[in-house]
């Protein structure tokens, strides 16, 4: 077996294992750390797909900034309360139904997917490079790109306003 194929299977196994551990882990800090591992293994998949820029952005933005934000939110929450009491049987049943529905939809989409065989004459090695990504973002997808930037700006302003202390508020 080719070393790239075996590395792909290893990364896939590690990605699925760490993603399952995100959901199964009872400690929220451990869950965030498993999510960081998931993002790093997904960056490995991007590198295998010759999308080095997406791999670097995934590590910088998701594994860096978003995970620090998640950790801050978890630290701000009062985790001393017993979380098991909040999980009723109704929420467990609803989560099982939603998870099963998502699995059925993904399995149906997978069955209808047709994978084209590799053709070396039509292969473009520059697919995931920065220049092509920039052309795609700023030509074909300019409006969604700008709307996403406005959404991020509004979220940042909202986070600042939520974190702002009021006059006379006690500091803990």
Automatic annotation (TrEMBL):
Record field: catalytic activity:
a quinone + NADH + 5 H(+)(in) = a quinol + NAD(+) + 4 H(+)(out)
Stored InterPro entries = NADH_UbQ/plastoQ_OxRdtase_su6 (IPR001457), Nuo/plastoQ_OxRdtase_6_NuoJ (IPR042106)
Cite the Gene3D superfamilies for this sequence: NADH-ubiquinone/plastoquinone oxidoreductase chain 6, subunit NuoJ
Q: How does it sit in the membrane?
A: Multi-pass membrane protein
Q: Which UniProt keywords apply?
A: Cell membrane, Membrane, NAD, Quinone, Transmembrane, Transmembrane helix
Which residues span the membrane? 6-24, 31-49, 55-77, 89-110, 141-162
List the subcellular locations: Cell membrane
- What EC number(s) does this enzyme carry? 7.1.1.-
Q: What class of enzyme is it?
A: translocase
* Domain of life assignment: Bacteria
User: Could you confirm whether the keyword Signal appears in this record?
Assistant: no
> Membrane as a keyword?
yes
**General function of this protein:** NDH-1 shuttles electrons from NADH, via FMN and iron-sulfur (Fe-S) centers, to quinones in the respiratory chain. Couples the redox reaction to proton translocation (for every two electrons transferred, four hydrogen ions are translocated across the cytoplasmic membrane), and thus conserves the redox energy in a proton gradient.
Q: Which family does it belong to?
A: Belongs to the complex I subunit 6 family.
The name under which this protein is listed is NADH-quinone oxidoreductase subunit J
Designated gene of the protein = nuoJ
